[in-house]
Amino acid sequence: MDQLLQTLKDGIAIGSLYALIALGYTMVYGILKFINFAHSDVVVLGAWLSLLFARKLEAVTGWGAPPWWAGALVLILAMAACALAGFCIERLAYKPIRGAPRLNVLITAIGVSLFLQNMGQQEWMFGTRPANIPALVNDATLFTVGRVNFTLLDAAGVGTALALMVGLEWLVFHTKIGRGMRAVSHSTATASLMGVPVNRVISTTFVIGSALAAAGGFLWALKYSQIKQTADTSWTLLGLKAFVAAVVGGIGNVRGAMLGGLAIGMLEMFGAAYLWSSMTDVYVFGLLIAVLLLRPGGILGKAVVEKV
Amino acid sequence: MSGSDVILDVRGVSKSFGGLKAVQDFSLSLSQGGLKGLIGPNGAGKTTVFNLLTGVYRPDAGTVRLGGANLVGLRPCAIAEAGMARTFQNIRLFGQLSVLDNVRLACHLRSSGTMTGAVLGSVFARGQERAMTERARELLRLFDLADREDEEARNLPYGDQRRLEIARALATGPAVLLLDEPAAGMNPQEKVELRQLIRRVRQEFKVTILLIEHDMGLVMDVCERIAVLDYGQVIAEGTPAEVQSNPRVVEAYLGEAPAEAGHA
Amino acid sequence: MNTSAAQLRERSRALAPGVGLSLARGVAPLVACLVLAVALQIAVRPLMGDYAAKLVLDIGVAVILAVSLTIVNGFTGQFSMGHAGFLAVGGYASGAVTYYGSLKVWGSAATHGGLLSGRPMSVDPSTLPLIGSGDLLFVGALLVGGLTAAALGLIVGLPSLRLRGDYLAIVTLGFGEIVRVCIQQTGPVIRTAAEAAQVPAWKLATSVGGALGFTGIPKYTSLFWVWLIAGITIMVAYRLKRSTYGRAFLSIREDEIASEAMGVNTTRYKVWAFVISAFFAGIAGGLFAHTLGVGLSAEAAGFLKSFDIIIMVVLGGLGSVSGAALAAMVVTLLPEWLRGKHVGPVDLSQYRLVIYALALILMMIFRPKGLLGVAELWDRSLWTSLAARLKRLAGGKGGSR
To answer: Which residue of A has its CA nearest to C181?
Structure first.
């Protein structure tokens, strides 16, 4: 019973992280129809920037125990910085080849990803050694069920992810720019004819997606406290799993990404707890292949017929 | 019309996408060596009919018989092998391949031999390569493209690309040729030449042709019979003169404001 | 049979060249390749230092990998990102064959190679036969590695029937990852012939070191083997490309729907492309595994290695065999060339991958088809168009346009 509860808790914790990152993939795919391979690297950037900001803050305030607003401030700074990075990536790398064949865009995305990974490895950036982020939350156990502790950190993580997702949902479905996004995802050409500022919508998409990625990186750092170097394969895997979450939920579908993230988190945690713990990657990719072959549109998406 | 010389016999073919009935109960027959036009206002479902005949889409109901064999459910490549070839309304050449290679590729489905033979350079594979080149060059000559055989297909002028599409389709050795708006984007001079070309192709290759075209002058001139499609259904069929005077046809065209405004 | 097919066949027979000519043109390049590879090993190798020799060897393996990936990514336009998975599978499979084969036959994993296979330069060549008994085992092992990878290529190729473009890329990437994880789960290497004799064959196949890596594989790989196989790979890829099958591959890349409508069984050729490509990658893996100084580990299947190969294929030109080979050379040599190079205080060798990344991005913006596109180095049209462009450029500068 305790194990079940623990696994459930872990699944939700990691799943909400996946969901947060998956949103970035799904938004870009929905609008530009390509896999933004560099998205996971923006997550990494977010994690490392959180670390830098947290250290700076610690040095400036000289806190013994972090004040309650420390986490929030670091989160906001990291999100802002990554939003800027996302904007630049779109303008410099993706905009010049808009409308090019998918393969070219994919290659560009791989290029951007490699660029970010290897710039991050430089000594004047983040270096090649892992680093620990200072504690940003005074962790305490909120309550205990059986032998499973629910801590403030758990709550903060899931709460932040949830709040951001609700915010995004509101943005996409209740604001003008959100309507623009939905219009562009249906047809860029038509949206442009109808007076939707396509460039601004696409930039906004990247800005939001990157900010969410930063939040994902921040929460990851908070959760594991140790941050690995930017080219570590575990980051690429994190990104891939988030992408799988987006596909499983139905790519291009914001709610699908949340659902998919949760599904992947659960699959991983339950697989690890009840089957072989070293094979979690295999379960995730197995699910991806199964979904793509059996229901290519994902859970909430719909299959698209190519026009001839 | 249902004599023994019917080569393509389409009966009761329907297809809907979601709630939209794109083609309903479509029937058509082509007699051996015939040349029939398929016309209709924009969005009437003409290209969808081609996609159904060539297996790009699978019909919800109905049969498509080519020389007696039912083609429904076959993959497009199997339908091409059975003897149905097509051109595309929005040109789909192999852009980065040379003009010659575009046509030679279409000879592939009539080839024999093995991949190992090709890699080892067997006598037969070499001979076959020459034979394909020879056939492709003949076609290019006929279509007045011989001096451009080394150019990349995407660099050809529009009219040449349309003609290359027809040459490529013919290289598959078809019994029935489906032409989807071959005159679209051509200038008047090219259109006149196209008429002659279509007639010549029909004589020299003994193919049966089904032609979608918006240029009424061309359709009325080259086609022996015409079928008119509107809202996915055949509303009239007959000789050009019969069709032109059919009140339902007139209504279908005039009911839709400028009929030449764009492409279906 | 269709009359059109019958006509074509008849005409093919009529136009077929003589057997002599055909044989000469078919076999001559192979013989040339063999002679060059022998010369490289016997005459050139002793003149090189070990470091230079290793570099030339690495280039050869990279050429095989890049050219084989070209068959999938370049010819058919399916984007595989799991090529390193095939490399690793081929490496482990062939490594297991030579290692355990040697234990069974000779009681130890020592090499039994000849003049043409890998050996320390200190060994006196006059005592060696041209081809040793160990070489036969090695060739057999390479084939096993290639075939194992090809079988896996068949399995990986199947999703390509239903997925296009970027989805396939992700699935193949996932495949490489699955291979990596599975290799890590394998058991420790069995070290003595006596132990190996007591264990069933399937158990031996899974005792390849797990997370510790597969050590102790006899080192047969030499410049001769690598460049002989590189030559064969280039030849097969190029001949495929120039054949009617190659046009079928390329047509899928250009327009899958039109290709299908022209009678190309696109699913069959896509799977074939994966199988052929995986076969050569598996052989490259075998060569890699038997190279002196190489530790074979699960990381060989990781996506960093796959990315390296993709960079070669994209930079060289998607669909160009010689372009891929050239890029393989450049990408392998670049870090050596950058070593110790400084621009101001910046050590350029630190920026190797950053340079590749920028090259990829800029290439997609300014020359999306890669350096050579589908053309080959020896295509005349490539040079004439280049000359025309240069002329235009010169003319533009002169103010004539």
So the answer is: A279
